[in-house]
Amino acid sequence: MTMNEPQVWTLIGVFGAALLGGFTLVATHFGRVVRAEIGRLEGTLTGKIEALDGRLSGQIEALDGKLSGQIEALDAHLNGRIDILDHRFDTLDKEVSNLATKVWRSS
């Protein structure tokens, strides 16, 4: 058979079309597989990020509660100390007034 017979060119066309169709089919399926894997990976990452966000939020809230409690305790302690100092200053003020009265009356 020579290359100028119609059956040869028909077979070349059929095989070429089959190869092109096969490549198209493989490329299409490859694209679908890649899209599916990216979607799966996105779902996995989203789940892990949300879990991490939940854990961090819980830890931050626990730390906030702990710090708030410590700050309130420190505030109460300092208020108690300030009250003691106020009482001491009041007592000192009365004693200085008594001393001043005694000194100026005796002069």
Overview of this structure, please?
The protein is mainly alpha-helical. The chain contains one helix and no strands. It has one helix at 6-106. The radius of gyration is 45 Å and the shape is rod-shaped. It starts with 5 loop residues before the first helix and ends with a helix.
User: Taking Cα atoms only, what radius of gyration do you get, to the nearest Å?
Assistant: 45 Å
> What low-confidence regions span 5 or more consecutive residues with pLDDT below 50?
none
Strand content: under 5%
* Topology as a string of helices (H) and strands (E): H
Please tally the helical runs, counting DSSP H or I stretches of 4 or more residues.
1
Oligomer category: single chain
Using the alpha-carbon principal axes, give the shape: rod-shaped
Largest sheet: none
Task: Look at the helices and sheets and give the structural class.
Answer: mainly alpha
Instruction: State the separation between the terminal residues, measured CA to CA.
Output: 148 Å
- The portion of residues assigned to helices is over 70%
